[in-house]
Write a structure and sequence with these properties.
Shape: globular
Helix content: 25-40%
Structural class: alpha/beta
Strand content: 15-25%
Oligomer: single chain
Order of helices and strands: EHEEEHEHEHEHEEHEEHEHH
Largest sheet: 8 strands, mixed
Length: 270
């Protein structure tokens, strides 16, 4: 029989694309809320998605509700759910439930490039979660990816509400969620590798250049002002701690991502 693959966070930005990339596999999709096609979700159970043959399950990694049911019979877990405040706790809940399931499923965990170099609270939580998984006794694969296009766009678009656009004087290597999802799907159907090679976007660009791309795509012409700040966090980013230039495996560029979302009638390129 083909392996049963459980995808957590299956309605999230990354998880839903991973589910799509695993088409043809025996996929069970977990989310905290009832999926629209999940008629049985009202009772915490699962139901077949008629559009894609996916079994949708309802469960909450914060409370543990529904997790044992979702894990029953799973051979692989692709953990796409994330919790900025409770990352380690939710990963611990998943690991403990997987160990009690008795099958020792292959756990595929998506992390972030630079979690061991950038002193940010969320990054430190992701690193602690990696260490928890590595010491769990489960077969595992950890994939670190650079920042998603959507995150970089959101950060820069938010700053664009000011009279000028201030940007940090460091570089980003944004990657498309579809590229990362494709890699995760490959890892899910393969053998556990422990720490997989990092996965980065196709280009390393100054934040100022990325900001100008965002402005152009929205038809705005603000002045972009790079800035520097003291401190370990800024220094870590300035030193490229968030980059993986030797693993520029992504294909979709930031400009392509923006073009897909731009209103052609409003764009004014400088």
């Amino acid at each position: 029989m083909p392996e049963r693959i459980l995808v957590t966070g299956a309605t999230g930005q990354l998880g839903r694309v991973v589910v799509e990339r695993l088409a043809g596999e025996r996929v069970r999709a977990l989310s905290r809320r009832r999926h629209t096609s999940n008629a049985a979700g009202r009772n915490g159970g699962g139901a077949k998605d008629p559009s894609g043959g996916v079994d949708w399950m309802v469960g909450d990694l914060r409370t543990g509700r529904g997790i044992n049911t979702a894990l029953a019979g799973a051979d692989v877990i692709v953990h796409c759910a994330t919790d900025y405040r409770h990352e380690v706790e939710t990963v611990r809940t998943l690991v403990e439930a997987a160990r009690w399931a008795g099958t020792l499923p292959h756990l595929v965990y998506v992390s972030i490039v630079g979690v061991d170099r950038v002193p940010m609270g969320y990054y430190q939580a992701k690193l602690a979660a990696e260490e928890l998984i590595a010491g769990s006794g489960l077969p595992y694969t950890i994939l670190r990816a650079t920042q998603f296009h959507a995150l970089v766009r959101t950060i820069l678009a938010g700053a664009a509400r000011l009279p000028v656009l201030p940007v940090p004087s460091w570089r980003f290597q944004p990657v498309d969620v579809r590229d990362v999802a494709g890699r995760l799907a490959e890892l899910a159907v393969g053998e556990p590798v422990g720490r997989a090679p990092d996965f980065g976007g196709p280009e390393v660009l100054p934040a100022a250049d990325l900001a100008r791309n965002v402005l152009a795509a929205s038809g705005r012409t603000l002045r972009v002002v790079p800035f520097r700040l003291p401190g370990k966090l800024f220094s870590a980013y300035a030193a490229g701690g968030n980059l993986a230039p030797d693993h520029a495996d992504g294909v979709i560029t930031f400009a392509q991502y923006l073009a897909e979302r731009a209103d052609p009638g409003s764009v004014r390129y400088r």
